[in-house]
Amino acid sequence: MSDNICDRCKKPVKTEENVMELLAIVQDDPLLVFTNDKCRHIRCSPSSAQWINHPDFMPMTDKRPKYAKKQYSVENRKVFEKKFTSGWLKLIGEDNLEDSTINLMNLD
Fold first, then answer.
1. Entry pTM
2. Which of 38, 47, 78, 90 has its CA at 20 to 30 Å from residue 21's CA atom?
């Protein structure tokens, strides 16, 4: 990420707001951050943001039919929500095991 400016809204992006950092955590692929020069806020990427289910993150919906989470089964939605919410908690530095477990249990 060369200049840390969001390619959508053109505003500065902090590490804890960067969707590429989130995807690197969710996909367990740290090289993703280095091999992709895209810089984008999580909130500017509704296809990823829609999966974060936490009281401190305002819910988002991706209205594009190709990416909307409503097309997935309830089971798959729960899996993605757990992965993305857990990844987001790690990204913002609130990934202590006790808090994460409590938040993820509330997704069911």
1. 0.81
2. 78
